[in-house]
Amino acid sequence: MTTDAQAKRHYEDIVVGAPFEYGGYRVTRNEIFEFAHAYDPQPHHIDEEAAKLSLVKGLCASGWHSCAMFMRMFYDGVLADSASMGGPAIDEVKWMKPIRPDHVLKARSTCVEKRVMRSRPAVGICKMKHEIFNQHDELLMTMENSFFIAVRNPAPAVGTEAQR
Amino acid sequence: MTTDAQAKRHYEDIVVGAPFEYGGYRVTRNEIFEFAHAYDPQPHHIDEEAAKLSLVKGLCASGWHSCAMFMRMFYDGVLADSASMGGPAIDEVKWMKPIRPDHVLKARSTCVEKRVMRSRPAVGICKMKHEIFNQHDELLMTMENSFFIAVRNPAPAVGTEAQR
Questions:
Q1: What pTM value is reported for the model?
Q2: Do residues B110 and B128 touch, judged by C-beta distance below 8 A?
Q3: Chain A residues closer than 8 Å to B56 by CB
Q4: Which residues of chain A have a CB within 8 Å of the CB of B86?
Q5: How far is Cα B20 from Cα B80, in angstroms, rounded to an integer?
Q6: Quick one: pLDDT at residue B92?
Q7: Distance from CA of A118 to the nearest CA of B (A)
Q8: In chain A, whose CA is at the least distance from the CA of B94?
Q9: Are B134 and B140 in contact (CB under 8 A)?
Q10: B123: three-class secondary structure by DSSP
Q11: Mutate to test the interface with A, among B85, B97, B105, B147 (most CBs of A within 10 A)
């Protein structure tokens, strides 16, 4: 591993309870339409007039688009300088308020639990809670998931011992 | 409401335990790259060589892209002819195997529970379990979520009575 790679944020650098704050993603009407036409063409994501009559009372981003925009912020704000290795699952997503055109999104992500995989001592798992806000500090979405991150100085595997 | 709207699948037409089967979404390398560059530019989604060295051992779709492709299938296969009204949350997503270029995705969605909102007798909630497979019948992803769907013949509100 090069020094550059070692300098990235590793498992050891993630502090449980210390939030990351990041963001600045400007939502546009065009991007809402574009994503929805590709992946989620429900009327309230592609048609202003139909959206007014819907439960969300106006055009809003697809929930999956909201997740994708969050992911882009999380990548730029946290993962890009981390030795991250992907993720296995999402534990929960709650869409609390619609994400509208001209919202500027920001997020706060907190590690609530971390551990090293017993079978793979070079891989850590961080369980995260994410909160996504707009520029008016309205909480729009929450999410819980886990991601894998490299351990900088892995201990030797202890699988055999642990099975004794 | 027009006859056309009434002819759509409503809350009353959803049968708990009776699966919907649908799909035929062909995953392409280009679409994997395009989504990843926009929303999830982790190396294993945008770089073939880096992907070979990653936990997923080869290029695969972003988990969020997988969700978006599922949503498109679910829209085309179920929602497009339903009186659906969006969804409030995702209870769980599990990415069990990587979704690769040239996978042809299909899905099975089963309503496991349904009820009418007490406060809004015209709105039903269906809790769904989804399974996403490729053309080799490998289970790639599972998901649990709920969606809102219009009730064709809503009963009068009983809020006051229920509170007695």
A1: 0.92
A2: yes
A3: 86
A4: 42, 44, 54-56, 63
A5: 13
A6: 96
A7: 16
A8: A89
A9: yes
A10: strand
A11: B85
Q: How does pLDDT run across A26-72, given as a tens digit for each residue?
A: 999 999 999 999 999 999 999 999 999 988 899 999 999 999 999 99
CB contact under 8 A, B86 and A56: yes
Q: Does B68 touch chain A (CB under 8 A)?
A: yes
User: A37: which DSSP letter?
Assistant: H
Q: Which residue type sits at A147? A: F
- Substitution target from B25, B53, B71, B143 for chain A, most A beta carbons within 10 A: B71
| Distance from C-alpha of A40 to C-alpha of B3, rounded to nearest angstrom | 25
Domains in chain A, please, with CATH? 3-27+61-153 (3.10.129.10)
Distance from C-alpha of A133 to C-alpha of A71, rounded to nearest angstrom: 14
B54-83: pLDDT as tens digits: 888 999 999 999 999 999 999 999 999 999
